[in-house]
Amino acid sequence: MSAEATNPVSAADAAVTDTTVRRRGRARIDLRRLGRAALLGATAGPAPRDRLPDAISHVAEAHRAHHPDADLSVLRRAYVLAESSHRGQFRKSGEPYITHPLAVTLILAELGAETTTLTASLLHDTVEDTDVTLDQVSGEFGDEVAYLVDGVTKVEKIDYGAAAEPETFRKMLVATGNDVRVMSIKLADRLHNMRTLGVMRPEKQARIAKVTRDVLIPLAERLGVQALKTELEDLVFSILHPEEYETTRALVAGNPQAGDALGAVAEQVSAVLREAGVGAEVLVRPRHFVSVHRVRLKRGELRGCDFGRLLVLVAEDADCYAVLGELHTCFTPVISEFKDFIAAPKFNLYQSLHTAVAAPDGAVAEVLIRTHRMHKVAEAGVVALGNPHVGQEAAEQPDQVDRQNATAQQAAAGSQPRHAPARPDATASRADDGERVDPTRPGWLSRLLDWQQAAPDPDTFWSSLRADLAEDDEITVFRADGGTLKLPAGASCVDAAYAQHGEAAHGCLGARVNGRLAPLGTVLGDGDTVQPLLAQDTVSGPSPEWLDHARTPAARIAIAGWLAAHPETAAPPAETDPRPQVSVTAARRTGAELHADLGGEPAAVRPAGCCTPVPPDEITGFRVRGGSVTAHRARCAAVDTMRGLGREPVAVRWGDTAQGRVTLVAESFGRPGLLADLTDAIATAGAAVVSATVEPPSEQRVRHTYTLDLPDAAGLPALMRAMRDVPGVYDVSRARRGTSESRRA
Question: Which listed residue, of 40, 147, 212, 705, carries a Cα 20 to 30 Å from 468's Cα?
């Protein structure tokens, strides 16, 4: 794809970053030797049909190590086409260009990719950089290979200009939604380009490294391809943070005996497991540079065991827990370091037990416990799963061409996203909850494919993609109807509303979280139950403050789109007095008659403003300054306060009139027309508004306080019910000073 050259990583660096290759006992291939072999193959004519060309023999060796029965004839044909097409093209290092697709294919072969992926990898630059057409690839190798090649082919810069890069990634991600192997090839392609980035100008190196950091590394993490992710991290680290990189490299080089400390602990662990009769392989797993750097920042001075971790491989899941039990019995466990990713796998398919134990000499060693199958998936992620669109039994035979491909999320929506290549033989395959059965199509990818269709321009897509991929963790929240939503960690009720209801969430008034009313900005936790509350009218819409709460691109794009279409909503309000706005409606001052038993002494009796009693409330009176008496509801907190101060209560009673004055507080979610609907409900009940106070909205919630004269106080419960029935109102209570006391009808 791009013709970079010369490796910026030294031999010492490669010893750490290329741990995957070293563990398999196969050294990194000499690319210059590959180039010479490719040229010799070109001049000497095609290789006999009974053997592969020398330049691809090592790819075949790596492939056969994972798939002994693989048919290599298709690889031979793909290599011949790629070599003849790229003949005369050279990388900036001077090597024949064919060395690049060969190196990319070797990376995937080492990870265990099946034959179809390797075939497409050999041809991945032919349509983009040579005269070979997609129809030619399809005619000779089939629609499946052509789809993968088209998926990683860049869009024409002449057509898209500065938007070419984000639109290329958009196209690639849409293709990945149908076949995750597209992204596998792209990741391997970027890894080889990053390995050979040295002759580029520093500013171009930095630009490519930043895109790799922001987009490709998070994608490698989400797809579980740790072997590629860790090396990409080290290469980006060396370019963007050269000083820290050199410090870390010197730290690793200055501790050549670091592995001995872990080796000693490994021998103790092996002995314990042998004695317990648990069959296990105990390996020392060195940390890559970025991991060493992170540990140093976390712990300060590093000890020998901090430069790596122990890896314990067993045959069965149950053996993992047996190993854990032996370790925690025979060593001192560090409880804070224990994590069970077998019972609760990560969203990128990763499974393992993590723990840390202290050896008798005090050294603390981190331990990873997993089966061989888990280890393969942990290293290679989706690449290790083979063809993602066939059953598990067929996946063990990756050379099968037949497949049952699941349609992408956008097909279910009835539209084809831009750049979506035609996918042959697509059939739907979904679980009951709407998620793809295919484990390589996780929730985050489905969400990404959803919101990318709504991204109005490449800049929005590009920035939203980076923000989405920056979210490392995922949570599961439950809907009120029993379904589930997968959301990034830190998501709020706003995100849940848009994830569940789409654009209908524009009318969201609030939410219930675990059965309790909560502001829209409430951050959700894993396992929470959330129920967005939607307005019944069609004129409600989001406010600009919602953007502060939205974490998912789908929610942010939808909110921004609505605000752009309704600029009057997004406009800042005119400067006003910051105090609460109060409007008073004049009304005849009425109230229920109150009488006090003071032995014939005249005294004015009035209802207390803190609890506003009305008939037939049980009441108690107290003298106040000026000789008057205030009547409180018997359960008012002020009654206990008065008694605590030694104040003697005064017997008070209601008169014959049924009228009363009461202050009610209505809690609601803000929406247009709410005040009019509330006052209409009050008027319908026959009450007169003495005063009304509406506080400024806070987190989309509004508090209304009404002082009302009631023609018959017995109608208060019915009035409160009528006010609660107004859309958007979630509570109505009797006013109390400093708080409110709900009096449900």
Answer: 147
